[in-house]
Amino acid sequence: MELEMLLYIRQIWFDHRLSWNSTEFHRIKVREHFLDKIWIPDIRMKNLKDMKHFREFGGVNMNINSNGRIYYSQLSLVKIDCPMILHKFPMDEQTCYLKFSSYAYAKSLLQFSLAERKTVVKPVHLPQFYFVGTSKDKGITPTITLTFQRRFGYYIIQIYVPSSFLVLLSWLSFFMDPTDIGNRLALEVTMILSIVFLLGNSNNSLPYLSYTKASDLFIIVSFGFVFMALLQTMLAYHLAIKKEPFGKTTTSDPLTRLKNYFVVFKRKKKEKAERKREQNENEENKCTRCVEPVDTDVVFERASGEQSGVVSRFWLDKMCIVAFPTLYIIFNVSYWSYYM
């Protein structure tokens, strides 16, 4: 990451060659055309990429006191290189360091130290970061640390919300007939391709990294949930066709099976009422209407058995309807608790 900013670099040092004894005036202001005749510390930054000084329009100010104390302020446009650590992207914080030292002199001859006054940073709006604050390190190499926190609202909309919706949509297959393998597979494959596209699109504006970012982890786990839903679809279909007898074809329409069930149920109830009425008439060894209860029972048992077989096919889907959302909620709670 490159950080470009305007800095007022203010330096104070003593040069006894420029001191004087006078009671009339104690300080003089140096004009711009005299600056080249006065020695100025050659300050530099170790991670500097580009630096431009402004001497026009009040960009430079130098005052010399009678005791040899020199105050020098210069406006500079500085571009520094800030290494980024993206393990927690997009909930990451980035730091930029301003390390001051001399370019031509050794530390034994010229050494810088930071003043006690607080570093003043004017409020500025950055599109991707919040400015958190500054800190100082008054060690051998004076360092000012600038801390920035990323604005991750954009990534919530572009990465996390779409990934979560794709996972939720993949669970719709649990409510479909397990023998409807075509539609269920089409749904799951579409969700997988969408998440793969989302993973590639989220890294377009970032450098190539050898480690996994927080956003990558979320998308990969979401991909895993969709892939597991695909495997569940294939397993549910296998269990569904395994329960059907060999060579038997049954209708796959649940409304048709339910309608047949009620028709057989009403027929059996009607036959039972007729038999009771015949017994009340005490007409033994006579049959006004011959029925075959065995065949009816067989039909009833066959229809009801078929209905119970359909219900038994859905045990895996019912279990996944509870298990998948529970595991995904646990993952989200753990994920956001760790990274936030």
TrEMBL record:
TM segment ranges: 152-173, 185-202, 217-240, 319-338
Start and end residues of each Neurotransmitter-gated ion-channel transmembrane domain: 159-288
A Pfam family it matches: Neur_chan_LBD
Gene Ontology terms for molecular function: extracellular ligand-gated monoatomic ion channel activity; transmembrane signaling receptor activity
Gene Ontology cellular-component terms listed: plasma membrane
Gene3D superfamilies referenced in this protein's UniProt entry, alphabetically: Neurotransmitter-gated ion-channel ligand-binding domain (2.70.170.10), Neurotransmitter-gated ion-channel transmembrane domain (1.20.58.390)
Domain Neurotransmitter-gated ion-channel ligand-binding residue range list: 1-142
Compartments (UniProt record): Cell membrane; Membrane
CDD domains: LGIC_TM_anion
Keyword flag RNA-binding: no
Keywords noted in UniProt: Cell membrane, Ion channel, Ion transport, Membrane, Receptor, Signal, Transmembrane, Transmembrane helix, Transport
InterPro entries xrefs: GABAA/Glycine_rcpt, Neur_chan_lig-bd, Neur_chan_lig-bd_sf, Neur_channel, Neuro-gated_channel_TM_sf, Neuro_actylchol_rec, Neurotrans-gated_channel_TM, Neurotransmitter_ion_chnl_CS
Topology in the lipid bilayer: Multi-pass membrane protein
Family membership: Belongs to the ligand-gated ion channel (TC 1.A.9) family.
PANTHER family according to UniProt: NEUROTRANSMITTER GATED ION CHANNEL
Name of protein: Gamma-aminobutyric acid receptor alpha-like
